[in-house]
Amino acid sequence: MKISRCLPRTHQEKSWLYLLSKYSANPVQALANYTVQFADNRQYVVGATLPVLLKEGQYDAAQKLLATLPANEMLEERYAVSVATRNKAEALRLARLLYQQEPANLTRWIN
């Protein structure tokens, strides 16, 4: 498939996601339950819904949403969920990855 054919569809899906996020009775649930076709739009859905899920303490839903992304994306958010769910092994693993990426921010991950 040519990339020029995908771009309009990606944009159409993003427009649909925007409408869901603005006009659904429960925007977070509508976005979280939508099966996204394009990776960029998946990032949009996670970015729009994850903060609300974390604030509401819906950690299972947050983990499920993060699982739709590649494992190396949104490490800070994954770390926050692992700390909130008291998953010490996962929190340590993610803290190490974050430290490898930004050694100067060590105190940021332990506080």
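The record above closes out task 2.4. Task 2.5 opens with a second protein, given below.
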Amino acid sequence: MVPTSYWRKSWGTFVRPNTGSFDIRDVSCLQEPTSLRIVHLYRIDACCQRCDRAFSARDGHGMSTVTGARVLTCPGCSASQAVSNRELARFSASHAGTAMAAPGPIAEVA
């Protein structure tokens, strides 16, 4: 079973999905215009709730692919969480063209 995210209010007026272990800040992907299905996922910017580390995950570097989902792994504390592709597509579509403020620098996962 792949857990799905839910919406919560945080950081003032911003509403971001909370996946349990991570706050998703941004999703960089290529989507089909009609169905909004993710064709290619470039990057997910997230913040670990356990250790408060902000990071940018991409395939093989903090993010792995499983059927129907992506698994994020924190580079600081190794916490991990699956996020469904449908939730990522919904998040990306609802935040298209908007930049979300991050409280600190986002570290690239090596």
